[in-house]
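Milestone 3.1: sequence recovery, worked example.
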């Protein structure tokens, strides 16, 4: 989408396999995959701008190979951009990654993107033979190499972790001049500075709390990018977050609470933390109007997105809706409301020729 048309609105999924808190049943991996494809097709038909799939290497997630899933989605969609969300860059060969997404770009007529991150889990390190002590060094080297591969058809390169390249042919080349590469940033200024210095986009995961606490990251990102000689117009910020939309805010909270509580109980248990269910009073605080959890009526979601736009001036918002065992029919309704009642208003309000009304 051209910048004059306002910010991009889209979806992402991690394909988590979580038992429904009411039935205790978990859908099959095959069914989960079908639902991911159906959500992407619906998002494309409804006019959303971007669809992303995450990467995990665990039995409780359905997706370990984003480019394969996205290639399937490419064949059933026409215009929606397709991205990883995120690629665990520390434990993948950047050459293989580039080739996979360049192939996806050709298959999708130029719709492929990469969001590169470190990932929330570390199971891919022993799985692929990497040392978690090299966590940061691997990411730094692989990101540098990926960006160079994006620019050069032939490469000579030396690094610490991967075999050297000597006038290597990097094929195929994508349909786009270069693949758009974003760096997923959790909350550290050093990560924001690195993304800015490299001139990559910065995708911030803002899953709750006061979004204003992320404003310093955006400032660091822009400052580092400008100091490195990048045009400020090329320094793109994206926001990702959990979302659920219903006709009214009360309905949205009532419907989403059991699944959101279920999701965090499950994720915290995976991380060795307390897996107790979230209290409804805590959920009410997390969904308050001034917070970053996008649960509410279309108007409430519009106001939250525009409030963040005032803070960050971001170019993209991506929502994760299908968490905690949420039934697919509820995901579908939420996607439809995002596409028909939220996205048009947000795009209009964030067009470059529109003066944004400050929302208190």
């Amino acid at each position: 989408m051209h910048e004059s048309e306002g910010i991009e609105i889209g979806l992402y999924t991690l394909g988590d396999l979580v038992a429904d808190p009411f039935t205790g049943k978990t859908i099959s991996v095959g069914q989960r995959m079908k639902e991911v494809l159906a959500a992407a097709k619906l998002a494309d038909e409804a006019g959303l701008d971007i669809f992303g799939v995450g990467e995990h290497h665990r039995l409780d997630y359905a997706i370990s190979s984003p480019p394969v899933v996205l290639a399937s989605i490419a064949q059933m969609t026409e215009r929606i951009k397709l991205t990883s969300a995120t690629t665990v860059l520390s434990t993948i060969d950047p050459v293989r990654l580039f080739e996979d997404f360049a192939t996806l770009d050709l298959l999708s007529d130029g719709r492929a993107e990469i969001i590169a991150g470190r990932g929330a889990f570390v199971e891919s390190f022993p799985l692929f033979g990497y040392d978690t002590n090299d966590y940061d060094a691997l990411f730094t080297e692989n990101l540098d190499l990926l960006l160079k591969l994006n620019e050069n058809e032939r490469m000579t390169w030396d690094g610490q972790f991967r075999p050297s390249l000597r006038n290597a042919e990097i094929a195929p080349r994508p349909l786009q001049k270069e693949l758009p590469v974003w760096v997923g940033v959790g909350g550290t200024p050093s990560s924001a500075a690195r993304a800015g210095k490299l001139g990559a986009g910065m995708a911030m995961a803002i899953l709750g709390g006061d979004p204003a606490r992320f404003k310093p990251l955006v400032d660091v990102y822009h400052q580092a990018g400008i100091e490195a000689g990048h045009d400020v117009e090329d320094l793109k910020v994206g926001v990702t977050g959990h979302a659920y939309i219903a006709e009214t805010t009360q309905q949205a909270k009532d419907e989403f609470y059991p699944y959101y509580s279920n999701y965090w109980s499950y994720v915290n248990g995976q991380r060795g933390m307390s897996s107790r269910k979230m209290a409804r009073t805590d959920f009410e605080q997390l969904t308050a109007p001034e917070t970053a959890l996008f649960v509410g009526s279309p108007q409430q979601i519009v106001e939250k997105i525009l409030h963040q736009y005032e803070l960050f001036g971001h170019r993209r918002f991506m929502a994760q809706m299908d968490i905690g065992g949420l039934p697919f029919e509820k995901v579908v309704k939420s996607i439809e409301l995002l596409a028909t009642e939220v996205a048009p208003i947000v795009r209009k309000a964030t067009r470059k020729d529109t003066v944004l009304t400050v929302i208190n």
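The longest strand covers residues 237-245. Residues 356-360 have pLDDT under 50 and may be disordered.
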